[in-house]
Design brief:
- By secondary structure, the chain is α/β, with parallel strands linked by helices.
- It folds into 2 domains: 140 residues, Alpha-Beta Complex (Quinone Oxidoreductase, Chain A, domain 1); 147 residues, Rossmann fold (3-Layer(aba) Sandwich), CATH 3.40.50.720.
- The chain is built from 10 helices and 16 strands.
- The strands form 3 sheets. Strands 3, 5, 6, 7, 8, 15 and 16 form a 7-stranded mixed beta sheet that branches. A 6-stranded parallel beta sheet has the order 11-10-9-12-13-14, covered by helices on one side. Strands 2-1-4 form a 3-stranded antiparallel beta sheet, with no helix packed on it.
- Helix 2 crosses helix 4 and helix 6 packs parallel to helix 7.
Length: 322
């Protein structure tokens, strides 16, 4: 079969021929793949620097995708074998795709939903009427997160980012307040503090970490012994602006912050089943109804080598059609 094949760690996958995957145990299914997204995780695993980098080469790359089971059912699944190929093995924990949802959108959405719905719903347990801040909302995941927060009834949706055009677009997706990130973190801190005083922020979903997150964290710090704390659930789901912050004891003692992370290591197997069987089907249905949007750039499998490292517009997901 044809696929995107990695021959050496640190190299770009190449279009070529490799043996078809074969079922090894009960519960596995062969998927005839029609589309698969290229994500940061996919690229990290090919680099050799990720903890889950490929060890048995050559190998087909790609972690998830959509296609047809043996009985003709169209599904999204996470690969036991690499997914950017004509065929792949998946487990039984797959998600059927609505007939009105196209393959490209179905392939592009799941990773963004995993990075937004799981922090919002599973980790922060968002409630209708709460106020949410997305720090670094102009990426693919942040844009999807804003739409999901609106769907689940968030009242105020505050977003930060550097791309002013995408920030403006996020208003159409449900954002009620936008903050343009600059190098002036003190100004960011004061903006967040002012917003928090008027409309207390209940949930923060952070994709940046580093200095922008430090400024937001400092904004929640109480100033005197008469300060009445309001609970703020903070979920980190990325570190695009830096891998470290300075967390002082005073911040935790002066406000009611619940700080947690969201990622594969923090989600239980049961929660991942809920993702595939409950959350993802609901989001697929929203997308099929035109109520959940994601921007994509599509290329054929044959072009994998030339598009793997191609610069893609911010907030757009690369999808390979097969």
């Amino acid at each position: 079969m044809k696929g995107a094949i990695l021959y050496e760690l640190g190299q770009v996958p190449q279009y070529g021929t490799i043996d078809e995957p074969k079922i090894q145990q009960e519960g596995e299914h062969v998927l005839r793949v029609t589309a698969a997204a290229v994500k940061n995780l996919d690229k990290a695993r090919t680099s050799g620097k990720h903890y889950a980098s490929y060890t048995d080469l050559p190998a087909v790359v790609g972690n998830d995708g959509v296609g047809y089971l043996e009985d003709g059912t169209r599904v999204y699944g996470q690969g036991i074998t690499g997914m950017i190929a004509e065929k792949a093995l998946i487990s039984g924990n797959y998600t059927p795709i609505p007939k009105d949802l196209d393959d490209v959108t179905a392939a592009a959405l799941p990773n963004a939903i995993l990075g937004s719905a799981m922090p919002l719903i599973i980790r922060a347990r968002l409630q209708e009427g709460q106020n949410v801040l997305f720090n670094g909302a102009t990426g693919v995941t942040g844009q999807v997160g804003v739409q999901i927060a609106k769907h689940y009834g968030a009242k105020e949706i505050i977003v930060t980012g550097r791309n002013t055009a995408i920030l403006e677009q996020l208003k159409h997706f449900g954002a009620t307040q936008t903050i343009t990130l600059t190098e002036d973190n003190e100004a960011l801190q004061e903006q967040i503090k002012s917003i928090h005083q008027i409309t207390p922020i209940d949930v923060v979903i952070d994709y940046l970490w580093g200095k922008p997150f430090q400024a937001i964290l400092n904004a929640f710090k109480g100033n005197d012994i008469h300060h009445l704390a309001s609970t703020v659930k903070i979920v980190t789901a990325g570190d695009m602006a830096g891998k470290e912050i300075q967390l002082t004891s005073a911040i935790l003692r002066s406000t009611d912050i619940q700080l947690m992370g969201s990622g594969f290591g923090s989600l239980t197997q049961e929660e991942l089943i809920v993702f595939n069987k409950v959350i993802l089907p609901e989001m697929f249905l929203l997308a099929a109804q035109g109520k959940l949007h994601i921007q994509t750039e599509v290329h054929p499998l044959e072009a994998i080598e030339s598009v793997w490292n191609k610069p893609i517009d911010r907030g757009t997901r690369l999808v390979i059609k097969i």
